[in-house]
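[step 3/7] fold_predict: job queued, chain A
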Amino acid sequence: MTEIPREEYILKCTSACAGCGDSLSLRYVLKAAGPDTVLVVPACCTSVIQGIYPNTAFNVPVYNVAFAAAAACASGMSAALRAAGKKTNVIAYAGDGGTVDIGIQALSGAFERGTDFLYICYDNEAYGNTGMQRSGATPLGARTTTTPGGKMQPKKDLDAIVAAHRPPYMATACPSYPRDLFQKVKKALSYRGPTFIHILSPCPPGWRFSTEKTVEMGKLAVRTGMWILYEREQGKVTINGPSKAAMVKPLPVGEYFRAQGRFKGISAETVARMVDDARALARRLQKEEEGIC
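[step 4/7] structure written:
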């Protein structure tokens, strides 16, 4: 942890919920990016927690844009800065709703064009800003305000969609592992061209757990194998340490599901299907890491 700078780019008195995983994620993202950074933020929790104009809790420039426009706006901003000879880090920082659903066409276009920026999806697995409605990233069986009986569709495989665009670098992360997140942001910003990080962002009000359990919840996700930390660099997959350990000796998945009110009443069959999907992903990534496929 000594390599993480002491400088803070998110100041006190944000408008975030207590225990906000998004705030914690962004804190480490900005520590890695440094002061020469501009954030492009669509409608999402982050556009609220920064504060009410003319005040802000963020110590870097922030450009707030429409829900669908983050990657498109970041494309123009990156082009303008590069034309001016500036190396400013352009980071599109969007939630899962603005990425896997509403903003996916702009994301795909920016990656196809080879935009020089970092796109980060902080994934709290629902539309947190507007009351926790289901998104394409909401897991199977999770209760939201629009799926009170549990979502009937599995979580959209965003990482496979991004990988199909063959970016030079992409990764998954979680703020419960700050050094891992910090290093991945540094690495992503070292590349010229579109890079991508998908951050699991535990959300106390949406996932229905106590506010002091955010870090613990992220670790449970990783240690049970329900969230896998890995990198895809120039096409080569590397599964990161915490997930390697979980693949050898995972914690019982029941610990993860029981800790969240959104999974109250979930059936054993639904849990089994989710576990099967997670294990299948782990096997696929292991084969890719070993160069089998």
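[step 5/7] annotate
The longest strand covers residues 89-95.
Residues 21-289 form a domain with the Rossmann fold fold (CATH 3.40.50.970).
exit 0
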